[in-house]
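note to self — DONT lose this again. spent like an hour looking for the file last time. sequence + predicted structure for the chain T wanted, 208 res
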Amino acid sequence: MYLPLQFTSKDQAHVWELIRTYSFASLISSDDEGLPFVTHLPLHLEMQDGQTVLLGHVAKPNPHWRYLQARPTAVVTFMGPHAYMSPKVYPDLVRVPTWNYLAVHCTVQATLIDDPLAKDRLLKKLIGDHDPAYAPQWMDLGTEYQHKMLAGIVAFELQVTAIQAKLKLNQHRPEAHAQMRAGYAAGNENEQALGLWMDKLGMHADKD
């Protein structure tokens, strides 16, 4: 993605926080005609022997797993909070509006997971991320039903080979930060989240 230096994040903790908080991702591969094919899905982030890995699955009728099998290199994107920014935040009028947002892009290498036990472990990790209270219900459904459900999905491991993180919060315009922060504090859920990220990045009002 287009990544100006002032918006580039190399803080690994920020990257992991964004992925875990906004884990509903876009998995992007090439189909058999060479066009982008996109599946929207939740992914589980973990470290395996120092390697960053994303775990997920698709329904078996979804052809995306076949594209991953044929062409394992893919891209995963995570979109964090985003919001319009009015030029009213500036002390002068010769300004234009923009859109602030947080995003992470990962280049990955895909490996399909066929073993039912490995798929079950993967599902339990996703359940743990999003609905831990459901775990006992899943385990009580019975082996036959579980195997039937597991046979209906294709699971995969996505080994992350490169990461880009873009935190676009008008960092290079400190004269706007005080008004931005005040506006975001009074705004909607996305705007409030961006305000908190301003705090994380130490974006304080220019005191001069």
